[in-house]
Amino acid sequence: MTDQKTQFYFEIKDLSVGFRTFEGIKPVLNIEGLGINRGETYGLVGESGAGKTVLALTILGLLPKPAGMILNGSILFDGVDLLKQSEKQMAEIYRGKRLAMIFQDPMSTLNPVFTVWQQIERVITRQEGLKGKACLKRSLELLDMVKLPDTMNLIDKYPHELSGGQRQRIIIAIALSCGAEFLIADEPTRNLDVTIQAGILKLIDELQRDFKMSVLFIGNNVSLVNIFCRNAGILYRGKLVEEGLSNCVVQNPLHPYTQTLISAIPRSKSEKLKFSKTIIKPEAENGCPYFSRCTIGKENCSTHVPMLREFRTESSAESLNDIQNPVQKAACFYAGGTI
Amino acid sequence: MNQPLIKVEALKKYFPVRSNHLFKTQKQWVKAVDGIDLEIQSGETIGLVGESGCGKTTLVNVLLRLEDSTEGSIIFDGLDITRVSQKMMRDKVRKNIQIVFQDPFWSLNPRMLVRNVIGEPLSVHQKLSGLALSEKVESLLDMVGLPKDSLYKYPHEFSGGQRQRIAIARALALEPKLVVLDEPTSSIDILSQAQILDLLQQLKEKLGLTYILISHDLSVVHYLSDRIIVMYLGKIVEQGPSEVIFNQPVHPYTQALFNAIPSLSMQNLSELQTIEGNVPSAINPPTGCRFHTRCPRVMPICSEIEPKAIYVDKDHQAACHLLKS
């Protein structure tokens, strides 16, 4: 098993990140392990405040300093620990070149006072050193790549003249302009219509195959992650509580939090929604992060922190032919029981 | 059939846009809502569905008379509210139609205590003050499941879901007949969403409310609505009972829209369908059927003649040329 683990193209080990506050350092992220193979998609699901975006920023070395602190751990990318790289190395070698990110809101990530061309040119000139005609040619290629029509006209427009879907495509073009190997997509379809969402997802999927990229997809929609990603992880209060093949996690959730999350998706009128009431028990400081809202938690949950354990369930047995990830993992003492 | 609670006939709302060319100033119109007929029975929940820019919010604003309509009539409780004076509107109509806005982070005044946020409609319409007001607000807070000590807190002290509860309490303070829910859960988390949806459902049963629900999350619409109206570029393309629209939509736009929603039962990205192209401009909408520029099953007739709404079934209407054959 240890041999396999070193094969991960991208791996997070024992990462813990905290924020400095007046009351001391508050831990926000505590991930024992998370691995993504080359060319794979990993979907990270969680509520707002779970630490999804903090993780993305940590990977890129963009954590606000000095408030954000990396307390422990390592992020290995292609054998190199990103956390040990200097800011200069990150900027020159990794960020924007080998690691790319698509941010949440296409309405505000483009600068409103520059044309599309000016914004693409900046990135290409800086990262690839292209100028003049060569640069224009490359920009048009990029816009073709993300399937925008009429690129010659489009390139001189300002962001406000474009629709949300077009803007998001331009952002994807800019993000992938330098042939990234690892893409972080932070809720890339959040403010878009469903009809446009499908188009953007298909585009990312296609580009991922073309470039053989690994993708870390951050989302709060479980069904979207299920369709889009091979593996899924559920983040709760900065901890991974469940991990596995995405359709195993969705069809057979083991952790009570995942179960609540999935049953909270409204389906139809006839099916009643299940959801946890707001905090019923006091917080357990040394225990399971989900203890206060958990309905099956017993006493030992408030004193011991459950680690990710491997489970072999029926649905994961079906996909056993895939050797690399034969199991589903959950961090709960009583995992597998129903609420 | 009973008298409908609200009856909308040939409702139009055009916004003027001026385009200044060098030698001529031309006045053009954005046809945000372009001829809508609608009946809502008392006690129903209507789901209004469509892409952004299709006129859902404008329609609701006109229904609440936050905007004046260009043409057509809205009969609410036997009164045409497009014609009545503002005073009449305030005294007779407004307390019966209330709205819960999309984003609870913007819709609550950050400098008002919860007591005043919820109590303002009561002090205006029922002239309540002092202890009577506090008591009434307390009972409203209790109804939406917030603790009584929230009374003297400010909106920033609450989470998104709790703020939306405050907004709901405010909308229900005057015991309205019709409540408009404009994307009530789009800015809150999935677990709070489930709680809010459950609360809305309970309140509806308890108080006999009628809802108009706008949402682009179709699973929310499916959960709450009795009847669904699908809009495209200012027109209704299909309407009918919720289950029918979800299971057997007949209009190509509705079909495309529903195939674009990711659901738990889907396995692959290829099951998700896209609609090509963008929503055309509402200034110069396409001739004939407005969807013909993007429709996968377009026919020559579609660009020439505008399809009329026909009954597919009892209560189930759609406007498409495909249905004639």
Automatic annotation (TrEMBL), chain A:
**Which SMART domains does the record cross-reference, listed alphabetically?**
AAA (SM00382)
Q: Which GO terms describe its cellular component?
A: plasma membrane
| MF term (GO), any | ATP binding
Q: Where is the ABC transporter domain?
A: 12-262
Q: Which superkingdom, per the lineage? A: Bacteria
Write out the annotated subcellular location: Cell membrane
Name the PROSITE patterns on file.
ABC_TRANSPORTER_1, ABC_TRANSPORTER_2
This protein's membrane topology, according to the annotation, is:
Peripheral membrane protein
Sorted UniProt keywords: ATP-binding, Cell membrane, Membrane, Nucleotide-binding, Transport
InterPro entries per record: AAA+_ATPase (IPR003593), ABC_Ni/Peptide_Import (IPR050388), ABC_transporter-like_ATP-bd (IPR003439), ABC_transporter-like_CS (IPR017871), Oligopep_ABC_C (IPR013563), P-loop_NTPase (IPR027417)
Q: Which GO terms describe its biological process?
A: peptide transport
Give the family this protein belongs to, as stated in its UniProt record.
Belongs to the ABC transporter superfamily.
Q: Which PANTHER family match?
A: DIPEPTIDE TRANSPORT ATP-BINDING PROTEIN DPPD, OLIGOPEPTIDE TRANSPORT ATP-BINDING PROTEIN APPD
Protein name, per record = Oligopeptide/dipeptide ABC transporter, ATP-binding protein, C-terminal domain
- Please name the source species: Flexilinea flocculi
Automatic annotation (TrEMBL), chain B:
* UniProt cross-references to SMART domains, sorted A to Z: AAA
Q: Does the keyword Cytoplasm apply?
A: no
Q: Which PROSITE patterns match?
A: ABC_TRANSPORTER_1, ABC_TRANSPORTER_2
Q: Which UniProt keywords apply?
A: ATP-binding, Nucleotide-binding, Transport
- In the record, what terms sit under GO molecular function? ATP binding; ATP hydrolysis activity
Q: Where is the ABC transporter domain?
A: 17-258
Q: What are the BP-aspect GO terms?
A: peptide transport; transmembrane transport
Which family does the record assign?
Belongs to the ABC transporter superfamily.
- Looking at the keywords, is NADP present? no
Q: Which InterPro entries match?
A: AAA+_ATPase, ABC_transp_ATP-bind, ABC_transporter-like_ATP-bd, ABC_transporter-like_CS, Oligopep_ABC_C, P-loop_NTPase
Protein name (record): Oligopeptide/dipeptide ABC transporter, ATP-binding protein, C-terminal domain
